[in-house]
Amino acid sequence: QVQLVESGGGLVQAGGSLRLSCAASGRTFSPSVMGWFRQAPGKEREFVAFITWSSAITIHSDSVKGRFTISRNNAKNTVYLQMNSLKPEDTAVYYCAAKTTLGNSKEASGYAYWGQGTQVTVSS
What we know:
The chain is an all-beta fold. It is built from no helices and 11 strands. Strands 2, 4, 5, 6, 9, 10 and 11 form a 7-stranded mixed beta sheet that branches. It has a 4-stranded antiparallel beta sheet with strand order 1-3-8-7, with no helix packed on it. The protein is globular, with a radius of gyration of 13 Å. The termini are far apart.
């Protein structure tokens, strides 16, 4: 059984920074891709970024490109999301997810494993 546990969320002023972490555990954990998604109240879950586990290829959504950076530490089975220049519209619950296949990695439906989410609130 794979478990993903996010941490690092909180309240920050606009222009500030936060670093989210997602620690994965499970005897057979061997993802192909890990991603970050977010969901604001009343909105659908939105793709933020993903990283391929073996080659560290990264893709970020246009809304966060240049401000957020996804990275991973294979030895610690952990993926990170460094968020800089935060805006009030970044306020959401942020979810970490993992999948064992490549392709369509911007689609939430392709991910088999999800964390419980961590709240990020950006005040203006």
